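cron nightly-structures :: item 1 of 1
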Amino acid sequence: MNKVFFSRRHFLSPLRPKRYALLLIGAFLFTLLMSPAFGQTEIQDLAVVINALTHPDLGIVASLSLIDLGESNERRAVNNEILRLGFDPILRRRAIGLSIHAHLAYITSFNLPITGGTSSGDNIYIINLEDREFVGEIPIQAGTTPQQIALVNDQKLYVTCAATHEVHVVDIPNRNVTKVLTGSFNKPTGITLLNGKAYVTNPAWEWDPVARKTTYYDSSVTVIDTETDIILKSIPVPTNAGGILNDGDSTVIVKTTGNYNDILGSIVLIDANTDEVMETVKLKLTPGSFALNSEKQLFIQGSWQNPGLLVYDVTARNWIRDEDNTIANFSNDAGTSISGGLTFSPAGNLYITQPDWSGGGQDYVRTMDVLDASLLRSYRVGPGGSTLGFARIVPRREDINNDGVINMKDMIIASRFLGDEGAGILADVNGDEVVNIFDLVLIEQGLH
């Protein structure tokens, strides 16, 4: 019988070393990706403040201030007026809406006409909050007076345009308006997004410069399908609906201010599932700004006659602090005003902007601990510091094209620089003055 022997000899083909090399590289990259130290960056939490005052006589233009929330010294924490949003005070450039995505801030702006004509220079500024610089501009048709912004996704945003009674759909990467929604708006101002829909407030007022009188028409909330940009519905609400926000679940909350005379304000709760009004809470005053915390408690700034804070429980639909029982002052500093704009931080504290519209420099952002209404911090900001938002800045050089998101576009751009050496190369993510596999790994890490 012939015996058959099976050889255990290893075939040393030319492919074998390459395979080993690939396995070694793969293992090395895996180790890097799993290492908590690799690509570690310092995170910075900021409050972003629009200083909205423009004053030709004082040479003041709108600007941007940043507050480092991790800095304990209140003076050092403020990087004041880092960018000017206007260049000629005579143009009275207004900065209105603020929306923040990652390290990018989007701010609506226009030149306010002095003689009652149409606005000019209407646009959306794009600002890199990490580098403190302008990185782009989205032009909006002149005369539209853009108001508030809602980012639908990385590719699209909506902007309300009060003067032309429109909502413009903007392509973010290409920085242009792709569609104009009309027919259901009357002075559209506020906008919020919930469950695949956009909700837009229509204050529906008209100023008569001859009679020097404002006429108020029927106010409403327009509902838009954010996938198709189709207008779904118009929901009637009380006079002069302006502010709007949502609870992140199923309730849209609208603030109406009335006519500043015999018609007072209200809070309207809309069911986002049915787009029907669930509750209309009539107020005994003309409300100021409002903000909702994570407990679904709505804080409402009272009128100038009664500037304290009201608190309404949206879930239980009852008052925690009503007009007769407001938070009148800070529990540990009764002499400091609590009037102004309201915004809750991700940490749960209430930030109150107090602008000095006279240009006297007494503009503050104050932080309240709502558990005991105590004053935590008091920051001095720029002229007319009134609009505030929050940003978490994670230094991300991986965002090669600076569009606010790390995706395959950044990987493709970076690959074109592979092998380049020298200082200041766009794709040199880790700053070692050479573009190689380590930079691509950092970008890949940012995709997750």
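cron nightly-structures :: done
Confidence is low (pLDDT under 50) at residues 1-15.
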